[in-house]
Amino acid sequence: MTTGERVDGGVYVEVGGRRVWHFQGGDPSGAPTVLLHGAFGSASSWGTQIADFTGAGLSVFLPERSGHGHSPDHDGPFSYADMVDETIAYLETAVRAPAHLVGWSDGAVIALLVALQRPDLVNRTVLVTNYLNPSGQDADEFFHLIGTRDPGTVEFLRSGYVAVSPDGPEHFDVVYDKTLAMLEREPDYDLDRFAGVAAPTLVVAADRGVIRLEHVLALSRILPRGRLAVLPGTHILPVESPELFNPLVISFLAADPPSHWTPTV
C-alpha cells in the first residue's frame, strides 16, 4: 500500500503523513465536491449519489478517513479535531481548490467545522442528518444497538470493514472501541459557535431518525446563510430516497457560480 497505488477504483494519497484512499470522478473542470461519510462508513456509502452528481457536471471526491474503508487506521483515539485536521489536509493536498462539502452524520459535523475554521477551502456546504450536541440527538434503535454492542449489529459492521480494510479483520474491534469512545463524548458544540460560518449551507433532515427537528431548525437559523430541508426518511436518507435527496443537493450546489474557483497550488 503506497502513495499512488490504485485499489478498487480509487487511489492512495498522502495526507498529513497518513495514507488516505479516495475516489475521484466526474468532469475535472466541474465544481469540486467532496462527500464525507459517517462513522463506520466509507466511500461506498455514497453509491446512490455518484452517478447523479457526476452526471450533473460535478467533480466528485470521495475520501475514506483513517480507520474507515480502505484507509489504514492511525495511532491514538478518534476525535472531531483530528478528523477536521485530516480533512483540511486532504482538501489542501488532493482537491487544491475551494470545494463544496457534503457531509453525512459525523461527516456533516466535520464539514461544518472545516467551513468555520477554513472558509477559504469551502464553497457551499450540505449537512445531512447530523446533531452537534447531545440535546440534538433523538432515540434511535440502530444507534442504541451500536452502543450496547448488539452481536448482530457488530457483525454487520464488521463484515463491511473486513471486506476492504488493509489493517486486517482483527483490527475491527479497535476501530469499534475508538468510535464508541468518541461518540460517548462528542460532538458537543454550542450552536452559537457556528454563527460565523460564511458558506451557504443546506441542512437536510429526515423526519424520522436520530436528530431532533428542533435542533436542526435552530442550527439553520443560526447559520448566516443557512437553509433547511426536511425530507421523509430516516438517518440513512441518501440511500433510502436518492430520488428526493440528489436533485435537492444538486440544485443547491448549482446555485453558486464557479467564477471564483481558483486552484490553491
UniProtKB/TrEMBL annotation:
It comes from the Bacteria. The gene is bpoC_2. The lineage of its organism: Bacteria, Bacillati, Actinomycetota, Actinomycetes, Mycobacteriales. Transmembrane segments: none annotated. The keyword Oxidoreductase applies. Keywords: Oxidoreductase, Peroxidase. PANTHER family: HYDROLASE ALPHA/BETA FOLD FAMILY (PTHR43194), PEROXISOMAL MEMBRANE PROTEIN LPX1 (PTHR43194:SF2). Pfam families: Abhydrolase_6. Its EC number is 1.11.1.18. This is Non-heme bromoperoxidase BpoC. One of its GO terms (molecular function) is bromide peroxidase activity. It comes from Gordonia insulae. Residues 34-246 form the AB hydrolase-1 domain.
